[in-house]
Structures are given as C-alpha cells and as structure tokens.
Amino acid sequence: MKLCIIGSGYVGLVSGACFAEVGHEVICVDNNQAKIDMLLKGKIPIYEPGLEELIHKNVAAKRLHFTTSTEEGVDKSDVVFIAVPTPPQPDGSVDLSYIEKVAREIAVVLKAGTYRVIVDKSTVPVRTGEKVAETIRRYNKTGAEFDVVSNPEFLREGCAVSDLMNPDRIVVGGNSEKAVALMQKVYEPFMAPVLVTDINSAELIKHAANSFLALKISYINAVAQICEASGADVEKVAAGIGSDKRIGRNFLNAGIGYGGSCFPKDIAAFIAISDELGVPFTLLKEVEKINEAQRERFLTKIRSALWVLQEKKVAVWGLTFKPDTDDVRSSVAIDVVRALVAEGADVTVYDPKGMEKATEYKLIEGAKLANSALEAAQGAEALIIATEWKDFAAVDLEDLKKVMHTPLIFDGRNLLNPETVRSAGLTYTSIGRA
Ligand code: UDX
Ligand code: UDX
Q1: Which CATH number fits domain 206-287: 1.10.3210.10, 1.20.140.10, 1.25.40.340, 1.10.1040.10?
Q2: Is 28 a catalytic residue?
Q3: Whole-angstrom Cα distance, residue 265 to residue 255?
Q4: How confident is the model at residue 53 (pLDDT cuts 50, 70, 90)?
Q5: Where does CATH 1.10.1040.10 sit in the chain?
Q6: CA of 114 to the centre of ligand 1 (A)
Q7: pTM for this one?
Q8: Which of 245, 266, 280, 307 reaches 20 to 30 Å from 29, CA-CA?
Q9: How many CB atoms are located within 10 Å of the residue 146 CB?
Q10: What is the rounded CA–CA span in Å between residue 239 and residue 361?
C-alpha cells in the first residue's frame, strides 16, 4: 500500500522504514528541512540499532522516500500517519499544538473525490481522535472523504526496529469498517494479532500500557528500599516474583528510576486527563513520587560517602536515558550529572552514543567529556554508573582500580556483580542490595 508518515523522528522514521521493509511504499514527511536533507543524503538523524541499514536498503529499493511537503505525502498515499511530538505542558497536560497543526495541514491538501485514512500514531490523551476529525472537517473545503483512527505504538527505544518487526499486538481504534479494513491490510505482513477497538479505548490502551510498565518499575524500586533496610537482595526478589508468569521478570530492574521521552510525559498526561475526567489517578501520583525519590536517595548515598561534593573529581558513565540509544530526553543520568555539577563537583562524563545530543542541547554544561569510560575514571574519587551500557560492564576492574584516585563505585543500574567488584578491591554501592 501507499503510506505517508508525518513526523520523521524516533517513532515516524522507524515506522516508515519497517513499513517499507514489509513491502509498502512509504513517504516520510518532516517539517525540519535539515533532517530531510540529511535523510536524502543517506545520513540517519537518530541512532536505533538496525535502522540505518533498513533505511538504506529500502531507499535503494525505491520503497522509502523523504520530503518536507505534506501535500506530496498526502496526495500519493492511501493512509496518512501522524507521528509528531505530543510534549508535556508544565502542568503535566499534553501540548497537542503539533497534532492540531498537522491536522490542519492535512485538511487543506485533501482533494475532492479522494478517500484517506488519517492515523493518530502519536501518544495522545483519550478523546483526541475526535478533535482531529473535527479539525479536518472544519479546514477541508473540498469535501474530501476521510476517517480518523488511533494506532498507538509500543516501540521501546534501543530496540524499536525489532519491536515493530515482531509486535506482540497491533491496536487499531476506529469506528469506520472501511478504515479498519485498510489498517488490517497495512499490518497484514507483520503477522501479529490486530486488536480492533473503538477509538477512545485505543488511545487509553497506550496510556494504560505505559503507566503500568512505569508502575512495575516504581514497585520494584520501592521494594529495593525495603531490601536495603532489611538486608535482602532486590535482584533475588525480582527473580523470585518475576518467575511467576502472572508477574513476569521484565520491567522489574531496580535502579535510579525511569526517564525518557515517554514514561514521564505519559504518566503526567494520564494523571492530568484522569483529573479532568473527575477520576483522579492517585496510584500514578505515587508512582511519580517513588520515581523522584529513587534519584534523590542515590544522590544522598554519594553525598554521604564523599562527605563534601565541592571540588571532588567524580566520573559519570552514561548520559542516555537507557542503553542502545542516543536519546537523552528526560534522562535520569543527565539529572544526576546536573545535580553533581550544581553542587560543585568536578564531573567528567562518558557515554557511547549520548554525548553529542547532550552537548548540542546544552544539558551538561560544566561537565567535562571523556573519550572512553576509563579516561573518564582517570583520577576520579568516585565513579557513578547511571546508564547500563554493556560497554561499561566490559571495563577491566583491575584497570579501573589503577586509574581511579579512590575506588568508590556507585552503580545506579545494578549493572555490575557486587562480589566481583569487591573481590577486585573496589568499594561498591548499588540499589536494593547490601
Ligand atoms: C513523538 C512523540 O514524542 C511521541 O509521544 C509520539 O508517540 C510520537 O512522536 P518521537 O518520534 O520520539 O515521538 O518525537 P521526535 O523524535 O521529536 O520526532 C518528531 C518529528 O516530528 C521531528 O522530526 C519533528 O521535526 C517533526 N515534526 C514536528 C513535524 O514534522 N511537524 C510538526 O509540526 C512538528
Ligand atoms: C517505553 C515503553 O516501553 C514503550 O512500549 C513505549 O512505546 C514508549 O515508552 P522507552 O521509554 O523507549 O519505551 O524505553 P523503556 O525500555 O520502556 O525504558 C523506559 C525507562 O524505564 C528508562 O529510563 C529505563 O532506564 C527505565 N527502566 C526500564 C527501569 O528503570 N527499569 C526497568 O526494569 C525497565
């Protein structure tokens, strides 16, 4: 089929490349000319494992195209996906201005006598689809036919390509049989169950899924605090409860908390929309509180071990919000770096993929950059592991001990094994473990 994706970011670009990979003809639209220019030159503006080769292969096969023109994308496609940002407002509610703008841009280019399915892929609060349809009706003057459906994505960054190529399920929310049938055709090649719902349920599924995953994380982080107080080991507890199929081991990794461009904003949005609907979601407010507290507790551990942070030479491994991505949006690792710098520590950071964006967005002013993990640890009085990149687990502990001034390790992601680290003569503090 002929598909158009408006918004070629982490979600739009991955979706477009995968749709082309399974045989569709895809036009990716973006209003950022520089981004489109990069893509037209074969350069990829984001890092996602497997994405670069997928894009090159499908551009060569003439199934994947890039443009800044919404009109071109809409004219040449049967289905138009909206994948533009839905950032949080200060009060936690969602800024839908990009969605509304794109809805208007689509409305004015829809031609008489054509039919299009307009798909909301961006994460939006429940009842947004109705507003998108209303906006397109209001701004389209050619009487074009269209239907709006919701098709939330469940892609994790760092494994977005594999998540989309092997989805657990596809969710399509729509009230038009014609539109739903077309969507089932779009996803046929993925051979995954397609759950068809009304549009509001589909929108709610996305927020409910993300907030449940964040709930699991805050749950194990709260249990980690009890493990620390009782001398238990949270990794053993996570294994013990996670082996129950009803619970599942995934998303029970204790650490300095969740970040990223989705969980914090989706939880805040779900809380805001629930308040608006008159059904306050107090449980999610607790999930947020636990998440904040986790980061503060970790910083307190560092402070109490170093007594005074002022002028102390501290190395931080990790800037991205999770491994295998270059994304630093709402990264807890960045919050840790900024807190240490603000308290006068002499911070040196290293991240395999995140340093460029962290510097570009001026997120780590005052911190020094190193070219390797070991270089960052050179002369350090403490080392903090803030993102669980595999590269960091591969560092030789003997070398690490040699280069550090004092061998104090604070592992915010329980990446390392306590016994191994201690037997190498390093002092080791982690989360939820003695
Ligand atoms: C975004 C939202 O953050 C997420 O909640 C939603 O589920 C999907 O879209 P992401 O792809 O990570 O996720 O955003 P980003 O990487 O910022 O990409 C958005 C792209 O849209 C950018 O390339 C931006 O240039 C483009 N854009 C934005 C448009 O093309 N038109 C606009 O009006 C606004
Ligand atoms: C999440 C959802 O998983 C995905 O389905 C949705 O489409 C977008 O939001 P993402 O934010 O890309 O994906 O990454 P994820 O792997 O979910 O991690 C989110 C945050 O939770 C990261 O900061 C990660 O460090 C943290 N996390 C994750 C934990 O602290 N513990 C865990 O066990 C898992």
Answers
A1: 1.10.1040.10
A2: no
A3: 19
A4: very high
A5: 206-287
A6: 27
A7: 0.94
A8: 266
A9: 20
A10: 38
